[in-house]
Amino acid sequence: MVDSLKKPDLQELRPGVKVPAKETILTPRFYTTDFEEMSKMDISINEDELQAILEEFRADYNRHHFVRTEEFQQSWDHIDGETRQLFVEFLERSCTAEFSGFLLYKELARKLKDKSPVLAECFSLMSRDEARHAGFLNKALSDFNLSLDLGFLTQSRSYTYFKPKFIFYATYLSEKIGYWRYITIYRHLASHPENRIYPIFNFFENWCQDENRHGDFFDAIMKSQPQFLNDWKARLWCRFFLLSVFATMYLNDIQRSGFYAALGLDARDYDIHVIRKLMKLQAGFFR
Length: 287
Ligand SMILES: [Fe+2]
Ligand SMILES: [Fe+2]
Hints:
The protein contains 10 helices and 5 strands; from the N terminus they run E-E-E-H-H-H-H-E-H-E-H-H-H-H-H. The chain is mainly alpha-helical. The protein has a 3-stranded mixed beta sheet. A two-stranded parallel sheet has the order 3-5. A hairpin with a 2-residue loop joins strand 1 (12-14) and strand 2. Mean pLDDT is 90; it is low at 1-8. Bound molecules: fe (ii) ion (2 copies).
């Protein structure tokens, strides 16, 4: 008899602590940058907008949002076999990506503290949000008897260096894509509640507003640095980033189409929807 409840074959660092997924070109990355150059940026031409965004971050709308409800308190063994494996992978990849944001923003907050206080505080408050997101996902992993050792992840991952303008292109796109990915799943499950197989998706509506605000912050920074957007070289780089972000997302999701199918989504249609929304509403200057 096939034991359909058998735990998927996942390697463990210690009992219950998952070995991080192997790094490939498609896994979520960890970034570092030229902090000195960033601290010297003159943001005065768009300071009002940045200040307004800082006020929004301070308001901390999701302060009480990430609290686990009773719905989580049950056995999740019925999510089994390949679906369970894909589910764990989804949680791990999402947790790693959120944690990568936390580390980068935290480091930026620390390095810019004395020289660029408005940016430093924005980064610090965004790192607060990302830590919440990563922590919530890691807690979800514990429902599947696993967790990620985030301290180990911090030390064992390699860091990709990008100049500040490339950091801005990459983080702007990943925040806005994150927004569209979360809200699309949320809206789909709101109209197909029978596919809501795990309660974390109920949290996506407010959660994605954090990502949207983070994206707005990077939009405002880039507006304060028109040289990052206005010449032909910058335009080519923007297109290159847009293309590589879309390609990475598509390849990742197609490989894991079973996860989306478990939610009643077609991975290809889902990605096309996310890309269309982003292109139509937000990535104007990336076109
Ligand atoms: Fe996040
Ligand atoms: Fe974010």
